[in-house]
Amino acid sequence: MEITTSQELKKKFGIEETLKRLGISDINAGVSTGTEWFDCKGAVTESYSPIDGSLIAKVKNADKDDYEKVLVKAQEAFKVWRKMPAPKRGEIVRQIGNALRDAKEDLGKLVTLEMGKIYQEGLGEVQEMIDICDFAVGQSRMLYGFTMHSERPDHKMMDQYHPLGLVGVISAFNFPVAVWAWNAMIAAVCGDVVIWKPSSKVPLCAIACHNIIQKVLKENDVPEGVFNLVVAKSSVMGDNFIEDKRVPLISVTGSTAIGKRVAEKVGARLGRTIAELGGNNAIVVAPTADLDMAIPGIVFGSVGTAGQRCTSTRRLIIHESIYDDVKNRLLNAYKQVETKIGNPLDENTLVGPVIDEGAVDVYNTAIAEVKKAGGTIVFGDKVLEGNYVLPTFCEVENHWQIVQDESFVPVLYIMKYKTLEEAIELHNGVPQGLSSSIFTLNMREAQTFISAVGSDCGIANVNIGTSGAEIGGAFGGEKETGGGRESGSDSWKTYMRRQTNTLNFGTDLPLAQGIKFDL
Ligand code: NAD
C-alpha cells in the first residue's frame, strides 16, 4: 500500500508543472477582483496536502481594508454587469467553460493534491464545473417570468426577474472548486457579482480557478469586481461578511453549525440565504433489491471521497430477510477496498486520506461512541498512517446520538427493518434531510419512497445511491440541511429579484377589486 507521496511520485504525476500551469507559486496573493491580485496584508495560510502532510504553498490573506476594497469594486461592477444582456453574460460563461475544459486535468490534479479525493473524483469535480457552465449558458436565455391576465380592462400584468446584486459564496473544503462554479456561473448569468470566500483548508484551488478564468475576463473586458475572491480568516470574512447589508444573498455550504450562524446573522438583516449543510444520508435495501447494483452503490457512497461528501452514505437500513446476506457482501467489498487505500493520485487507489488530523479524531470519536453505546464494529476501526483511515461499518441503533449526528468520515451505520413503514420512519428519524435512496424492484415501494409519505430529503433516488448528483437537478436538502437549492432546475430564481408589473394602456384608472374612489 503506497500511502506517502514520495518525490518520485510527485515527479511521476508532474505536480510541479501542474502548479506552474495553474499559476500557483510558493507564496500567493489570496484576493482578486477578477484579473487584479491584491498585495494582501493579512495573515498567511499554509496549505498542506493531506496526502503526505507536505506544504504545497502559502497564501497571503485579506485584511479588513482588502475586504472593503473588494466590496466597493463589486458594487461598481454590479452597476455595469447588470446592464449587459443576459445572453452576452452567458457567452462569457461559455468561454469560462472552455477555459475549464482546457485546464481540467491540471485543476483536477490540484483538487486531489490539496483536498485528497482520488484523481478520478478530482476530474469529476471539474467536469461538474464545465457542466454548470453549459447549463448556465442555456439558462441565460431562459430567465423567464410569467405574464398574467389582469382583472382590469386594458391592463397587462407580468413578473420579471432582475439581477439581485452582490452574492457571497462561502464554500466547504470537500468540493473546493465545484461549489463556487454552481453558484458563480448561475449568479453571473443572472447579472450578479460574486464574492467567494473559500475554505481556508483549500485556498489554492480557489486561486487556481481565478487564474483559469482571468484570460476570459481580460479578453471580454469584464469589469474588475464581477468575480471576486477573498481568502481570509473568519476574523476578516466571518460575521462582518455575513452581516454586511451590501450583500443581499449569502450562499453557504458547510456544516449545520456554521449554516445556523449564517442563517441567523443574514436573517437578522432580512437578507437571503442559500444554506447547503450537513447530511445524514441513508439507503433502504428492500427484499427485492438487485444486490449486484446495491452493493457497489452503497460502497461508493460510503467509502468514496473517504466519506467526505455531503451526500455520502452514512446509514444503511436493510430488510431483515436479506440482512445477513447484505452484511456479508459488504464485508467482502470493504476487504477489497482495504487493498486500494493509498495515494489518491495513483490510478489504482479507491480511497485517499481524510482532510486533516481533526478528521482522524472525528473518525476515532465516532467509533468510540458506537462502542460505548453498545454497537458492533463489523469492519474497520483502524488509523493506518497519517490521515489515512480504514473505512468502517458498524451495527447500531438509529436513535443513538452518534448515529443522529453527521460524522464527516468513512463510517457507515447499518440496521434492520421489518416493514417499509418502519424503514421510512428510521430513514426520516434524523435531524438532517439531504440525500436518500431505496434499492427495490417493487414498484409500490419505490413510488411510496418518493411520495409525500416517503423520504423527507431534498434528494430521493431509486436504484442509485445517495452520493453525488447531476447538475441539472436542484441540489439541496430539508431540515438541518438548510433548505437551500442550487445548481440546476429553477434554482437560478434565488439569485434574482422578482418584480411584478402592472401596465395600464387604457384611458381609465380602474382600481383593483372594483373599489370605487370617486373624487
Ligand atoms: P465548515 O462548516 O467547517 O466550513 C464551511 C465554510 O464556512 C468554510 O469556508 C469556513 O471557512 C466557513 N466559516 C467558518 N466559520 C465561519 C464564520 N463564522 N463566518 C463565515 N464563514 C465561516 O465545513 P467544512 O468542514 O469545510 O465542510 C464539511 C461540511 O460541509 C459537512 O457538514 C458537509 O456535509 C457540508 N457540505 C454540505 C454540502 C451541501 O451541499 N449540502 C456540500 C458540501 C459540504
Short description:
The chain is an alpha/beta fold and 519 residues long. The chain contains 17 helices and 25 strands.
How would you describe what is shown here?
Its EC number is 1.2.1.3. The active site is at residue 276. Belongs to the aldehyde dehydrogenase family. With 519 residues, the chain is of the alpha/beta class. Helix content is 38%, strand content 21%. It contains 17 helices and 25 strands. The longest helix is centred in the N-terminal third of the chain and has 21 residues, at 119-139. Bound molecules: nicotinamide-adenine-dinucleotide. The site of nicotinamide-adenine-dinucleotide (NAD) has 26 residues, from helix 11.
User: What overall form do the CA principal axes indicate?
Assistant: globular
**Strand arrangement, major sheet:** 14-17-18-13-12-20-21
Mean pLDDT: 97
Low-pLDDT ranges = none
The hetero molecules present are:
nicotinamide-adenine-dinucleotide
Task: Please give the largest β-sheet.
Answer: 7 strands, mixed
Number of strands: 25
